[in-house]
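Listing S7. Sequence submitted for prediction.
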Amino acid sequence: MDRTAIQDVIYQTCLLLDEKNFDAFLDLCDDEFRYTITTYSTEIRKDMIWLDHDKKGMRNLFDQLPRHNSDHSPITRHATVYKVEVDEGRREASAVSVLQVYKTDLDGGATTLFAVGKYVDTIKLDSGKPRLVKRVVKLDTRMLGIGYHIPF
């Protein structure tokens, strides 16, 4: 499997989440998929886990979104894949991507940088197409305000 196919699956996840096409996003994920959002707290000097779900938990989260009192301002994910390492023996790859998330206000249309961090992805390569097995979102940003429930 070449680096381009691995990068493509990462970029595709961003586009699908931007479009709120959660079914197609989950189709890119393996049955063993795990999604975690962490951020380092300087106050307590350790990582905090803000979200940790398997594929079924992500499905439930997406299904529950219409019931949340949420900020409906669209966000746009911009990822740049920095590193890809392929382990042919395990038939998987690991990738690190830098992530910027932009938010466009519904009233007025101003766009601001909303969050910055990294994707640390594990991608299964044993089928005809790469499948996301694990995504850890390591946020640098810790102040996100309230009411935004869609994962990065």
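Caption to Listing S7: primary sequence and predicted structure tokens for the chain studied. The chain has one domain: 3-139. Strands lie at 29-41, 46-54, 75-87, 92-104, 111-124, 131-139.
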